[in-house]
Write a structure and sequence with these properties.
The protein is mainly beta. It has one domain. It has 2 helices and 13 strands, in the order ββββββββββαβαββ. The strands form 3 sheets. The chain has an 8-stranded antiparallel beta sheet with strand order 4-3-1-10-9-8-7-6, with no helix packed on it. Strands 5-2-11 form a 3-stranded antiparallel beta sheet, with no helix packed on it. The termini are far apart.
Length: 150
């Protein structure tokens, strides 16, 4: 079994007032595979409108909030009912645990090792982008002559 952990709970209800939510997979996520910790080096990003849809597609994998109130999350193979992975009641958990179903590697394991999914709130934008090494549109850039430019 593959268990992917992210410190902190994930729940769509925490972001009801935010129209657009970015989903990140951290570059260096701690993954536990058969009891052994490994680091996954991957970075994927997908946007979805939570207010309009309970699911979105990324790399042939469908992400579904099966129960928005509890934060239950399922990953299914696109166009099928096959559950690749699930995260049960992440809204009340201290850690985000993604349980990969047996045989999930046959659907393209590199695509579903999304490691610790982070729901990113606009107020945390600067801190999260700095942590992931991503520059925002309005971040300050230095010119060659040393002047600041917005």
């Amino acid at each position: 079994m593959l268990e992917i952990r992210h410190h902190g709970a994930l729940s769509p209800d925490s972001f009801e007032s935010v129209a657009e939510v970015d989903w990140f997979a951290m570059k260096s996520s701690q993954v536990r595979f058969d009891g052994q910790e490994v680091t996954v080096d991957t970075f994927l990003r997908k946007k979805t409108l939570l207010g309009q849809s309970r699911s979105f597609l990324c790399g042939g994998v469908q992400f579904i909030w099966s129960d928005r109130s509890s934060g239950n999350l399922e990953l299914r193979r696109e166009g099928t009912d096959v559950v690749i992975a699930s995260c049960i009641d992440s809204s009340t958990s201290e850690d985000f645990r993604l349980h990969i179903s047996p045989g999930a590697h046959v659907v393209g394991f590199d695509l579903i090792v999304l490691s610790a999914l982070i729901v990113h709130h606009k107020r945390e934008d600067r801190r999260l982008r700095a942590r992931l090494g991503v520059k925002g549109r309005n971040e300050r850039r230095k010119k060659d002559d040393g002047d600041d430019e917005y």
